[in-house]
Amino acid sequence: MSVAELARLVAGHGLRDDALDPPWLAPMEVGQLLAEGRRHKLVGMLDQAVADGALRCDDDDAHRIGEAAVEVAGWCVRLERHLLAVHDLFDAHEVPHRFVKGPTVAHRFYSHPGLRMFVDIDVLVPPEQLDRAERALQGADHQRDQPDPYPGFSRRYAKSVSMRHRDGMEVDVHRVLADGPFGLRSRPAVVWERPAVDFSLGGRIVPALDPAAAFVHACVNAVASYDCVSWGALRDVAQIAPSVALHPARVAELATAMEVEACVAEAVSRASRDLGWEPSAGLVETAARPISERERQWLDSYRQRPSDPRRALQGMQAVPGLRAKAAYLVSVGRLLGGRRPRRRASRPAPAVAQRRSLR
Amino acid sequence: MRYARQPEALWRSTSRGPVVFAPGDLDPIRLHGAAALVWEVLDQPLELAQLDADVTALSPGAPGVDSAVADLVERGLVVPLP
């Protein structure tokens, strides 16, 4: 069995009956599998699979895997402490927010959070609050990983802005839940119209997405991301699904409103096929929705790493409305052409406006 | 008297023992032996006698539950409740 196959086996641990003859890990495979585990966010699940006997190895290798899980767990709890600090910061700066992915999934949808590792913090804010969120984080020793390629570009078109604390912790501030064309097509307001769900972390209450939104986001994250699609992301789909199994209509309604039905269909199909997971009848029906040719092109584009012009073309297809398409085309055209936008000449602010800005 | 996990502690289970990050600590720590077992069974607050019984059920003959509890209390990882 290849290391990739072993990683897939780990990702599906507990979703199906374990093999009668669990595979034996050779010492050389353990190092490779740990590397895959880190890449696919499966180190905790790997530790559990070995402890459960779903994978066999000698004591030294089990120890090695366990120690890797300890290291990952240490980073995760440090990130959780940082999440609580970001929550306080955003509250103090009156930035509406919902934490997504990582700890919000680990604590709410897995039997114990150690099974679900994460490497950064993800938080969703309304697009018009993106600049304020960025300034708040900058004031708290975070720096942006990459500058805005064009003034206002991220606020209008990016999925997220990555900010890094001086201690190395990354906070991804999301404008939308999906990357690329599905993200450009979606209306962020759809998510904000839904009430936040509180979840408890370290004795504190922090805001997160409701289960249907968390499930849709897991699907989107699994199939509509330019990052490596991790087995861990697919596992999230299967892991959150029981929380929405009795309410498939809520999932369908939200996916339709966000225009990501194709992502849900694709993610459920892939998780079922690749992890041996059996979705509920309601989700099977939701996932049976046909994928159009354009949606298939978009879904494939995340795996194919399209050129910038092709990505720009797909983005223009996705942006709704002629004026918005034109604005997007101009912005991207300037980016691809390497020309910086002309700035308006600065004028002294009127006295009234200055007084307002001091509040 | 009952004992409970420090509610503000952030933690995770691993096959090598729980990793716990208490408020005010600079670094997370991994618990071993009886301390690890005590931590794991404290899903709900427990009196010492029940704690001892639950730990023994997990690991017969596990020594030092009392001293493990005292140590965890001293480190602020476990809190006594009335």
What does this structure look like?
The complex is a heterodimer of chains A (359) and B (82). Helix content of chain A is 55%, strand content 9%. Chain A contains 18 helices and 7 strands. The longest helix of chain A is centred in the first third of the chain and has 34 residues, at 59-92. Chain A is globular. Chain A starts with a helix and ends with a helix. Chain B is globular. Chain B is of the alpha+beta class and 82 residues long. In chain B, helix 1 (33-41) crosses helix 2 (48-58). The interface between A and B is medium-sized, with 26 and 18 residues.
Total of DSSP H or I helical runs spanning 4+ residues of chain A: 18
Count the E strands of chain B.
Answer: 6
Mean pLDDT of chain B: 93
Tell me about the biggest sheet of chain B?
3 strands, antiparallel
* N→C terminal distance of chain B: 5 Å
Helical content band of chain A: 55-70%
Major sheet: arrangement of strands of chain A: 1-2-5-4-3
Tell me the strand order in the biggest sheet of chain B.
5-1-6
List key phrases describing it:
heterodimer, A: 359 residues, alpha+beta, five-stranded mixed beta sheet, two-stranded antiparallel ribbon, 18 helices, 55% helix, disordered C terminus, B: 82 residues, three-stranded antiparallel beta sheet, 3 helices, globular
